[in-house]
Amino acid sequence: REYVAMNVVGARKAQLIPSAGAIRYKKGGVIYMAIAHFSTHEHLQAHEQARHASWVWGQGALGGFLAMIVLTIAEVIVFWIADGEPLEYLRLAASVPLGVLPDTVTRIEAFGAGGLTLIIGSIIAGILVAYFALISRVLHRSRRSMVLFGMLSGVAIWLASFYILAPLFGAGWAPTETSAVAQLLLHAIAYGAVLGWYLDANPPIDEMP
Q: Closest Cα partner for 136 from 120, 150, 157?
């Protein structure tokens, strides 16, 4: 009986005390699980970054283009009411890359060079606004915050376009040909607010409610 009891106790101890092979197996499993978790995390993070980049380039460009259409319509109406010349805004836009005065720009140049300048500029601006809205976390807040961010961005775009880029292209007269108050309001509301609203209404997939 004592012999049998000792064998039973020894068997129970053998079950409670893991062997060296079992310890190595458990350690190996933990390491494998850690590596698998790290790899999965890296994969998900890379996938999220790619999705955000796609959103910035896609929705930013589309939002900038749509906001440009609204801004152009508003500019045409304002110039039409103020000067009786609805194409003046397009002439102003065309005169910058052409390096000539707006009065010398023809209708074809206004629609061609002017339209192309507005499209390219608005798309680049839309992408930049979308990028900064994403990294600054403004996009994760309320619609009001995003619209306000868009309006501030529109003002910044106006200042950069009229007071920095235009003089670099030899069009230093650009600010004097327009009303500063009118352009500030138009770029803040007709472009910036529209772009901010659009980006808020079309967030990245992981930000959708």
A: 150
- Residue of 186, 160, 162, 177 lying closest to 105 (CA atoms): 177
Query: Under a CB-based contact definition with an 8 Å cutoff, are residues 196 and 149 in contact?
Result: yes
Measured CA to CA, the distance from residue 169 to residue 161 in angstroms comes to 11
Instruction: Give the other-Cβ count within 10 Å of 138's Cβ.
Output: 21
pTM of the model as a whole: 0.74
Using alpha carbons, select from 115, 29, 33 the residue that is nearest to residue 76.
115
Helix axes 115-135, 143-160, angle to 10 degrees: 130
Under the banding of pLDDT at 50, 70 and 90, the label for residue 68 is very high
Secondary element (H or E) of residue 181: helix 180-185
